Amino acid sequence: MEKLQNFDRLSLNQITTDRWSLREAVEGSVRAGIPWIAPWRNKVAEAGLAESRRYIRDAGLKVSSLCRGGYFPAATAAGRQERLDDNRRAVEEAAELGAEVLVLVCGPSADKDIATARQQVEEGIEQLIPHARAHGVKLGIEPLHPMYAAERSVIVTLGQANTLAEKFNAEDVGVVVDVFHVWWDPNLYSEIARAGDRIRGFHVSDWIVPVPDLLLGRGMMGDGVIELRRMRQAVEAAGYKGPIEVEIFNRAVWDTPGDEVLALMKERYLEHC
Amino acid sequence: MEKLQNFDRLSLNQITTDRWSLREAVEGSVRAGIPWIAPWRNKVAEAGLAESRRYIRDAGLKVSSLCRGGYFPAATAAGRQERLDDNRRAVEEAAELGAEVLVLVCGPSADKDIATARQQVEEGIEQLIPHARAHGVKLGIEPLHPMYAAERSVIVTLGQANTLAEKFNAEDVGVVVDVFHVWWDPNLYSEIARAGDRIRGFHVSDWIVPVPDLLLGRGMMGDGVIELRRMRQAVEAAGYKGPIEVEIFNRAVWDTPGDEVLALMKERYLEHC
């Protein structure tokens, strides 16, 4: 299988260098020659939206995605309306930053009734679409690993994300494939093919053995068991040629100086992705 | 939905009282009026097979399952043969103990090639069937939660377990439904219906929020988010009327005196299952 030959598609998902402010992440990306960035909303808020936009544009970086919208389910109608309002702000921020996609982490159930929560996710996306379309922002449903079903996302497989996305126009709603969340799935490759031109993002990291931590246990590419290159080539075969985000939630990575993380990330990207 | 009215179907999976020897677990079950037990092979080995059989029979307990066979994939043919030999011994032990089913935890991949590992699981089961049939032992494929895909089982969904089981006669190979492993699955109820008379076991515990530990984080029924009664009634609607095993891997539960655990387990069983 062919290796990647350059860094044209490489994107720094900002969580990978969580200690850095948005400005530091922008400057670090420029130093490292990484052309894409995926900011997080909390970091954008800290820096200010207009400032964030200016840092990114002045540095000549492109924005692969904004992390994140979602969290649609809530116990009450008022709660769901609050979530929707927040998603509308996320859409506006994505548009302002020139992000190609707003990533949706769809949220957990407010109670034991996971089926109802899934219905609320569908309703939330449906209600968000007009605003997203008006702002030229595409929505990307990111299925999360099933171990986050109770706390972060009731959307847990790529098949489920595809079924949900297919209820809407492909221009409006697609899916985001993160290797950490989906690598275990026996239907993975058929669902990647099915996703086709709805794939709005591809995130890489690795699954370390043993898993050091439920949330902060993701590994640098090459440190775990995921068939990264096979998955990258599958999303390409399905039609995705866009940016490849490195998104690593890991305390040890966060404790490493950002420039070192980016250097290692570039090396592993060519070697393993 | 109707509650369970008595303890006729209640089974103590021995891991729930991991500090107890087999003899202590048998005696504790008798004290608590729990009619079924699911021993673990390491505990049977400690007590001796013939002794274990005698304890259980003398106490008048029934054996819902033996935990566990499986772990089929290995890097070499010799390694896979060793695993198969061990599975044959597990079958003999299940027969000796009068277990209704040998639970199969199918094992992780020896490398990154998870597809090949899954093929090795299928081959291992196929090779084990004649021995199991000769000993009157049914095999139950237990899909494990995807968070265990790299370390314990490449079989991670009930759908995948069903597809695998359906390659063989229903008399030989079925599936085991453990709520902790499958509750998150968007296809759960259709796959329970599909499993039908292949369901060979039903295991209960709960998914605590937040998850305290990847391996030892299961909760007592009622302490988490799983729709236990809905799932129990679904397996019954599919045709399963057999024992219901309480299987809890949890350090805090293990640190509690066994008699207290069994008392709480009985209370929660009637209240939540």
TrEMBL record, chains A, B:
<protein>
    <submittedName>
        <fullName>TIM barrel protein</fullName>
    </submittedName>
</protein>
<dbReference type="InterPro" id="IPR050312">
    <property type="entry name" value="IolE/XylAMocC-like"/>
</dbReference>
<dbReference type="Pfam" id="PF01261">
    <property type="entry name" value="AP_endonuc_2"/>
</dbReference>
<feature type="domain" description="Xylose isomerase-like TIM barrel">
    <location>
        <begin position="33"/>
        <end position="256"/>
    </location>
</feature>
<dbReference type="InterPro" id="IPR036237">
    <property type="entry name" value="Xyl_isomerase-like_sf"/>
</dbReference>
<dbReference type="InterPro" id="IPR013022">
    <property type="entry name" value="Xyl_isomerase-like_TIM-brl"/>
</dbReference>
